[in-house]
Amino acid sequence: MLKNIDPLLNAELLYVLRAMGHGDVIVVSDTNFPSDSTAQETVHEELLRVDAPAARVVKAILSVMPLDFAVEHPAMCMEVQDKPEEVPEVRTEVQQAIVDAGEKYKLLPIDRFKFYDMAKESYAVVTTAERRFWGCFMLKKGVLPPEEG
């Protein structure tokens, strides 16, 4: 156990978050996403697992990782197929986790098949215990400014 580190951040996930650079993307997926096959095509090539709801996993990740301020949409989600205006509860919860982390960005909905393609280009995929549909998200890593003083 480590002080001030969210216990959901297991050793493998912490390693990946630390290894990622500015602009790298991590996918947080629900249990229905083709996580393992997608993960095999990412930079990390291995699936990460955290057995918690998607919003809770996003909260843990954002406790140590800033979002990229250099792009317009550093946080994205899979949109509901054939109902792009629909906002599932899981998306609302993840948006709140982003706000609670002090980030100002709104989730950008992405077409399901485009999301799949983009996920294969990501750094890593973490699958969650999220069983609600449309609980898939992408977070683009930002930078930490130098300490002043």
Automatic annotation (TrEMBL):
Keywords: Isomerase
Pfam families: RbsD_FucU
Gene3D superfamilies: RbsD-like domain
MF terms in GO: D-ribose pyranase activity; fucose binding; L-fucose mutarotase activity
A single GO BP: fucose metabolic process
Source domain of life: Bacteria
Catalytic activity: alpha-L-fucose = beta-L-fucose; beta-D-ribopyranose = beta-D-ribofuranose
Protein's recorded name: Ribose ABC transporter
Organism in which the protein naturally occurs: Candidatus Amphirhobacter heronislandensis
